[in-house]
């Protein structure tokens, strides 16, 4: 659930006193009925409370469900293969082959950097990322010191034809007076628009897309952050996408849930919309109730927020595809709104990401490797330094092979506040449906371009269900580093292998396959016109 884990509530006294309502993260509302004058309801309530708010990572279902038929392979190997594809390998499989041949490909302009191999430069970044060849590892460390949480600008995607790049970072630490500068950061950002093999005569334009509203960016300046000045960054233009923060998204989903409970096909008490409208129904209610339903849906703001993310991603994709410009995207910390718009823009630009294998690579790269805090956003416990002994004992109880402790501590370093315990995350109210909202945006694109995606809407619903159910380890913890220290790949099942196993027997007859998919029809970018960006409520999920 998006408030404080699964929120259980009871109604007023009398008959409804025998009901217990549980609101799920997936928008499902389950109502239990109990016999009067018994203690069953209290016992069930206390049992559900223990389950829905586990205090330890090891209490999650992914660790306690028993033997794992879908063991996870090395996600870091898959990330390296995807990087090699972006740097010029013809396909993901070619990238894997290059890795097995121990070929670390780099070009005259871009290279794979392992400066963060021990996670000392940025604990929430992957151990490997793409940088400009002109930037040294020392300059990378200097640039990281000028960015919030050390999340320096790195390349997330490269256009295979015009060599424009899509980069991501967190906000610069320019301060309230906007007078703090970093030579290393400015040099690093300048390399994003430097001449390449495709554009040797002159530099390309660079757009710096701040995903926040302008006023929010200015407010962050009072806390040491802020946004870039185009005067300090070569050939750049700063734009603001106006996407609201995690708290606005959480509140919006809560209002949408209330709307669905009141105006949906059936409410949480089991009554239909026909009965709730007094029986004067046409299409779910009389004219007055229909007007109220439309108003309530608009007041939730959910579709407006979905539109903001879609519009921002479309604008970015158009700059890269049509202008051949490079784009640097950031918000405050660079792991929520930034991840949404960057991954959505890449989905529009690269047809490979619209296949099953490519979609997995996209999610693993931009959401998992680049540290979207799934544990904090879903209200789950995560890894802390106090968990080392628990890790050892849990591994021994599982009879796991390999080293007894997966912990890999960097000498002289410790976990920061971003790796807080579960209780701290709940207290600061950092739960938010950021990933759900992004999948909703993907569903809107699939609705607009039904022949461009290999997967179906049913696959997206299954994906969200797998993420929220904690059945697999892929989306646990807050970063690649935490998952590595816990040993998630060894201790938990893999969602991607499970989904692939589900599809294999029926192949293209499985419901996850999009029967309208045409490989040849949409090999270029998807750039929906502004008039088409009118999102609808995702019926398959909501």
Sum up the structure in keywords:
542 residues, alpha/beta, five-stranded mixed sheet, 21 helices, 8% strand, disordered N terminus
Set out the fold topology.
Blueprint: E1 7-9, E2 19-23, E3 29-33, H1 40-52, H2 61-64, H3 75-86, H4 92-100, E4 110-113, E5 129-132, H5 137-144, E6 154-158, E7 165-169, H6 183-190, E8 206-210, H7 214-221, E9 236-240, H8 246-263, H9 273-276, H10 287-300, H11 302-323, E10 326-330, H12 337-349, H13 356-369, H14 374-377, H15 388-398, H16 422-427, H17 434-448, H18 457-469, H19 480-486, H20 488-491, H21 495-503
Parallel strand pairs: 7-10, 8-9, 8-10
Antiparallel strand pairs: 1-2, 2-3, 4-5, 6-7
Shape: globular
Oligomer: single chain
With helices defined by DSSP (H or I, 4 residues minimum), what is the helix count?
Answer: 21
Structural class: alpha/beta
Strand order of the largest sheet: 6-7-10-8-9
Major sheet characteristics: 5 strands, mixed
Compute the separation of the termini in Å: 14 Å
Please give the radius of gyration in angstroms.
24 Å
- How many β-strand stretches? 10
User: Low-confidence stretches at least 5 residues in length (pLDDT < 50)?
Assistant: 1-14, 100-104, 270-285, 398-427
Strand content: 5-15%
Work out the helicity level.
Answer: 25-40%
Structure description:
By secondary structure, this protein is α/β, with parallel strands linked by helices. The protein has 21 helices and 10 strands. The chain has helices at residues 40-52, 61-64, 75-86, 92-100, 137-144, 183-190, 214-221, 246-263, 273-276, 287-300, 302-323, 337-349, 356-369, 374-377, 388-398, 422-427, 434-448, 457-469, 480-486, 488-491, 495-503; strands spanning 7-9, 19-23, 29-33, 110-113, 129-132, 154-158, 165-169, 206-210, 236-240, 326-330. The strands form 3 sheets. A 5-stranded mixed sheet has the order 6-7-10-8-9, covered by helices on one side.
């Amino acid at each position: 659930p998006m408030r404080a884990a699964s929120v259980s509530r009871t109604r007023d006294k009398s008959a409804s006193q025998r009901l217990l309502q549980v609101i799920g993260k997936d928008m499902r509302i389950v109502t239990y009925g109990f016999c009067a004058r018994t203690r069953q309801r209290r016992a069930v309530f206390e049992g559900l409370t223990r389950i829905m708010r586990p205090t330890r990572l090891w209490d999650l279902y992914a660790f306690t469900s028993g033997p794992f038929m879908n063991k996870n392979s090395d996600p870091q190997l898959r990330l390296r293969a995807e990087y090699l594809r972006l740097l010029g390998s013809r396909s993901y499989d070619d990238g894997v082959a290059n890795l097995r041949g121990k070929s670390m490909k780099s070009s005259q302009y871009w290279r794979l950097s392992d400066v963060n191999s021990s996670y000392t430069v940025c604990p929430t970044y992957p151990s490997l990322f793409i940088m400009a060849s002109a930037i040294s590892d020392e300059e990378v460390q200097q640039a990281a010191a000028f960015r919030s949480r050390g999340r320096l600008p790195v390349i997330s995607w490269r256009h295979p034809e015009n060599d424009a790049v899509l980069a991501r970072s967190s906000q610069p630490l320019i301060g309230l007076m906007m007078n703090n500068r970093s030579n290393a950061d400015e040099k690093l950002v300048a390399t994003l628009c430097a001449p390449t093999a495709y554009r040797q005569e002159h530099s390309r334009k660079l757009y710096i897309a701040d995903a926040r509203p302008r006023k929010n960016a200015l407010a962050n300046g009072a806390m040491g952050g802020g946004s870039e000045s185009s005067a300090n960054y070569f050939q750049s233009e700063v734009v603001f996408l106006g996407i609201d923060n995690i708290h606005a998204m959480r509140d919006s989903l809560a209002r949408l849930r209330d709307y669905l409970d009141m105006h949906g096909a059936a409410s949480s008490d089991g009554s239909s919309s026909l009965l709730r409208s007094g029986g004067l129904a046409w299409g779910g209610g009389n004219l007055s109730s229909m007007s109220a339903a439309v108003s309530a849906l608009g007041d939730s703001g959910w579709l407006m927020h979905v539109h903001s993310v879609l519009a921002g991603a479309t604008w970015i994709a158009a700059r890269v595809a049509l202008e051949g410009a490079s784009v640097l995207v950031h918000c405050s910390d660079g792991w929520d709104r930034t991840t949404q718009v960057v991954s959505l823009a890449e989905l529009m630009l690269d047809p490979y990401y619209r296949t099953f294998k490519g979609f997995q690579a996209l999610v693993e790269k931009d959401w998992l490797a680049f540290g979207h805090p799934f544990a904090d956003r879903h209200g789950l416990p995560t890894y802390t330094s106090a968990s080392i002994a628990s890790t050892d004992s849990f591994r021994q109880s599982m009879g796991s092979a390999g080293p007894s402790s997966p912990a890999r501590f960097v000498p002289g370093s410790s976990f920061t506040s971003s790796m807080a315990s579960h209780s701290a995350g709940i207290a600061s109210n950092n739960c938010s449906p950021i990933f759900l909202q992004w999948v909703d945006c993907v569903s809107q694109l699939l609705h607009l371009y039904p022949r461009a995606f290999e997967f179906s809407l049913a696959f997206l619903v299954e994906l969200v269900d797998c993420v929220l159910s904690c059945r697999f380890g892929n989306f646990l913890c807050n970063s690649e580093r935490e998952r590595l220290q816990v040993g998630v790949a060894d201790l938990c099942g893999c969602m991607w292998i499970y989904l692939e196993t589900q599809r294999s027997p029926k192949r293209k007859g499985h419901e996850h396959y999009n029967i309208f998919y045409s490989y040849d029809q949409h090999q270029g970018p998807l750039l929906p016109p502004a008039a088409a960006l009118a999102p609808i409520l995702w019926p398959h999920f909501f």
